Inverse folding.
């Protein structure tokens, strides 16, 4: 039996909820309150010491990192196949998994955090101390706040991401190959937030967001909730070296 | 850019595989090691990173982001090095470089992610500050600014600016050194459990790590040696002994090949039959 620890239908958690719905897989549901930083509580750090959701458990094994967990699910439960129909499509799926992790999610976190305007309380700060050094450093940076210049750079990076999404949608209407795939599933929850952050998205992207939102598995996974209420997830650092 | 004629089309001449990259080192080396392990022929376009040819108009016409490696297969352009590794294993014949089991594939990808996000950038920061930063000292700042303006990606531009103007904070260098120490311990522990980094068989995870760790016996002898890290040491010997890995180290201008040869001597690894 699969168990899923997640933060509700937003960000990376939404991608796994959608994939599980697409595959028709049942799972034991563990939902964490990210607004209260439940992902940094000792009982959850025993599940994932990095203090990040989603986490999938199956057969005594614990899987982290959303995109790799999506690939695992697709390889273990290939019906319906979502990994791309040929090597080019599968490369493109991987490219988007990487791009979300290194470009889209970290910049979205900066913009989200800057718009949040509310400092975390003492309990939340105590949670940061329990994290491994790399993640603690990212949160320390967030607590210091981001400069107007950094927020502007993050917005520019997201605008560029929206253009690249539009480019890859141009030929088939989907991000990788001829149909709906893990590329769409990993990008969608993040791109769905762009408009709420005041970013203009190209018409191709708006049309794709609309089509994805209407898929039955997506509606099932997201329920009545909109994707807007996402908590910032600090991602990998950018530009340690060029 | 120059193309080498050593390896050309496949025997049938049907497919065209071109690799634009620098030396068999880190990200640049990933496609070279994979292709040699699978014995896939390709055309090698050497991009001289020291001359910053990856920011030249000729290369930007291949990859507008100005990052290496770039691999072009029958017109399909790929620029993300780790996804390129999976593509090579997916699209070409030859020995499988990914485990069949989905869980071990997940583990292979985790090892590669840890390497790509935390370890390789830390080693690169340390190495570039030691080896590349001195060449910019005394250079005309206006000239360096013009060089920076050619770099398309803002995050890369910021990293090069720190390097050229010697502005890497000491705390960042310390953190990089800490990450490398931690990774050495982590990999030694993984290799105590299984012979290769993603289970019983050699995989892309091993290629990803050896592409950056090949020189540790010579560059970090106090941290990496037969006593301190016996499992990592044995793994380094087994990686360096592989004919495909040795062939990849022969590509390029020899800077890296020479360092790999020094590592082999220290490890007591002979030259594999070609």
């Amino acid at each position: 039996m699969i168990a899923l620890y997640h933060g509700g239908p937003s960000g990376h958690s939404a991608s796994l909820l959608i994939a599980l719905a697409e595959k028709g897989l049942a799972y034991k549901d563990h939902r964490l309150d990210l607004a209260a930083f439940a992902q940094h509580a000792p009982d959850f750090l025993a599940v994932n010491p990095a203090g990040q959701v989603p986490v999938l458990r199956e057969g005594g094994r614990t899987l982290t990192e959303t995109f790799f967990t999506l690939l695992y699910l697709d390889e273990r439960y290939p019906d319906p196949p979502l990994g791309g129909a040929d090597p080019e499509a599968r490369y493109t799926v991987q490219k988007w998994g990487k791009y979300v992790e290194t470009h889209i999610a970290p910049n979205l976190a900066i913009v989200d955090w800057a718009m949040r305007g509310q400092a975390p309380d003492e309990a939340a700060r105590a949670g940061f101390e329990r994290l491994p050094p790399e993640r603690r450093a990212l949160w320390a940076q967030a607590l210091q706040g981001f400069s107007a210049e950094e927020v502007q750079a993050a917005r520019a990076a997201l605008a560029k991401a929206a253009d690249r999404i539009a480019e890859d949608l141009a030929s088939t209407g989907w991000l990788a190959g001829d149909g709906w795939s893990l590329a769409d599933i990993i990008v969608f929850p993040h791109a769905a937030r762009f408009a709420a952050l005041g970013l203009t998205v190209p018409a191709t992207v708006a049309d794709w967001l609309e089509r994805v939102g209407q898929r039955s598995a997506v509606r099932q996974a997201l329920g009545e909730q909109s994707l807007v209420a996402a908590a910032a997830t600090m991602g990998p650092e950018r530009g340690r070296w060029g | 850019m120059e193309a080498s004629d050593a390896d050309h089309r496949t025997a049938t001449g049907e497919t065209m595989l071109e690799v634009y990259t620098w030396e068999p080192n880190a990200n640049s080396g990933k496609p070279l090691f994979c292709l040699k392990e699978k014995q896939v022929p390709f055309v090698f376009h050497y991009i001289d990173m020291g001359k910053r040819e990856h920011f030249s108009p000729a290369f930007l016409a291949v990859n507008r982001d100005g990052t290496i490696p770039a691999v072009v297969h029958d017109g399909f352009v790929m620029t993300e090095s780790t996804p390129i590794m999976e593509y090579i294993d997916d699209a070409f014949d030859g020995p499988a470089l990914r485990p069949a089991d989905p869980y071990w594939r997940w583990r292979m990808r985790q090892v590669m992610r840890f390497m790509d996000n935390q370890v390789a950038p830390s080693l690169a920061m340390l190495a570039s500050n030691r080896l590349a930063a001195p060449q910019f000292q005394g250079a005309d700042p206006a000239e360096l600014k013009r060089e920076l303006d050619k770099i398309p990606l803002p995050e890369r531009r910021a990293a090069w600016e720190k390097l050229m103007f010697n502005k890497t904070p000491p705390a960042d260098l310390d953190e990089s050194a800490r990450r490398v120490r931690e990774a050495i311990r982590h990999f030694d522990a993984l290799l105590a459990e299984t012979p290769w980094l993603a289970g019983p068989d050699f995989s892309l995870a091993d290629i990803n790590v050896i592409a950056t760790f090949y020189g540790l016996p010579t560059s970090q002898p106090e941290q990496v040696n037969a006593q301190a890290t016996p499992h990592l040491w044995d793994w380094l010997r087994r990686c360096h002994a592989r004919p495909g890995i040795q062939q990849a180290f022969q590509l390029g201008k020899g800077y890296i090949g020479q360092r790999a040869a020094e590592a082999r001597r220290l490890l007591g690894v002979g030259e594999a039959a070609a």
Summary: Residues 102-267 of chain B form a domain with the Glutathione S-transferase Yfyf (Class Pi); Chain A, domain 2 fold (CATH 1.20.1050.10). Chain B has two domains: 2-91, 102-267. Chain B touches chain A at residues 76, 78, 80, 82-84, 86-87, 90-91, 102-103, 105-106, 109-110, 113, 117-118, 121-122, 124-125, 128, 151, 153-160, 163, 172, 175-176, 178-179 (CB under 8 Å).
